[in-house]
Amino acid sequence: MGLTIALNRGRILNECLPLLVAAGIRPAEDLEGSRKLIFDTVEGEHRLVVMRGSDVPTYVEHGGADVGIVGKDTLMEYAGSGFYERLDLGIGRCRLMTAAPVGLGLGSGPLRVATKFVRTSRSYFESRGRQVRIIPLSGAMEIAPLMNLADCIVDIVDSGNTLKANGLEALDTIAHISSRVIVNRAAMKTRFDEVQHFIERLRAQIK
Question: Given this model, what pLDDT does residue 49 score?
Fold first, then answer.
């Protein structure tokens, strides 16, 4: 059996599939048109597993998958350390940013911050000496300031159109985000040649 590769469904999956195919790792069937989550490859060399992005590091850390492809934002939020980050694929590019109602900024006093990036946001504001109360939300962060639930938000920003539509403006960039290849620590030792071959095939495509 080849490598088990955990893939982040959604935008990252759509953007990494052409890279995988170009590297000779082709799904044996259409991933989008199937309800299955585990797929063989045409060559039979590897196995692809499609899951939520937040689960990719967990599967890789605990050995459910040998390698994974996931956004840097997810890795920043994840508290585990059972994997190595080996390659930046340069896809799924966006920014993790603070945003607030137009013209209000972040001020200088205590802040209520709505976000799903709880760990990253707390670390960011603490490093700047800001007193914050983090309000965890799983989605629709943009309306939190409009509903007086928060003073600002921390979220992924691509075009910024959703912010503008809800009366917000992007402010500070916390991190530049792209998709990364992570490798289980044990697999890096016991299956080094296979893992390295996989990484080099992908690296050749992004060059």
Answer: 95
pLDDT at 42: 87
Please write the tens of the pLDDT for every residue from 68-103: 999 999 999 998 889 999 999 999 899 999 999 999
- Dig out the tokens for 145 from the structure: 């300031």
CATH number of 94-175: 3.40.190.10
Which residue's structure tokens are 């992004």? 206
Let me know if domain 4-92+178-206 sits in CATH 3.40.50.300. Answer: no
Q: Where along the chain do its domains lie?
A: 4-92+178-206, 94-175
Pull the structure tokens for residue 123.
């670390």
Query: How many CB atoms lie under 10 A from the CB of residue 149?
Result: 14
Q: Sort 154 into a burial class: Cβ within 10 Å, 0-12 / 13-18 / 19+.
A: buried
